[in-house]
Amino acid sequence: MSVFRQKMFSTSYSDIAWWLFVLAVFVGLVILWFGKFDGSPGQPVVLARPSPDTELVATGLPSSPAAAADEHTNFIPPASLLQQKVVENLRRFQTEFRQMAPGATVSAAPGSSNRDLVAKDLGDLFARTGLAASAKVAMTKPKPETASADMLLYTRQENREIVYKFMAAMYPYISGKTMLVFDQRFTLDRLHLVIQGIPRFNSDGSVVFSRNTAESSKSEGGKPDLTQGRSL
Fold this sequence. Notes:
- The chain is an alpha+beta fold.
- The chain is 38% helix and 19% strand.
- Strands 1-2-5-4-6-3-9 form a 7-stranded mixed beta sheet, covered by helices on one side. A two-stranded antiparallel sheet has the order 7-8.
- The radius of gyration is 23 Å and the shape is globular.
């Protein structure tokens, strides 16, 4: 092989190696920037920030017409395999942040026995995984922008990234639109989840929420007073 051809191939390989390095760096930066969403339905996706103290986040992809046809309005208890999956998720979350001693309470807005049952099941799951908080924070009247959310989750703003992982851990048992309400009183060991939407149930007992606003208003008789919610 001539010296010219050797130099040509040497230069080509060097260029390819350089561009592969640049591509790897670019991909790494993209993953770092968008790391919160890995494409799985349980990963929280930020939908809106209605105010400095609130953030609307969704877990679970929208139901397809075929999936919606399988939803039931009557309560269905979570199947054993579903419970096992969520328990594993919550225990993994609890282990990752053990030094920060995370804990949560859950309550249901009044007016729906199904909401009460969902809150009870979640409370049981928290208890089984060491996430049940012993102390509760007094609730205040919710902000107007929280009314359309399926769930409310009270937390400190600086714990938002950790709370994303907490939300992902509750999937696939429960999914929907959650309004994060930033309040300094709700430390990581005193997170509080409020179920306020109209729950529907898949055949395995997993919970989704009605997307029909008119139906929700009719079923609940107006906006619930969450200061009177039932705690589990």
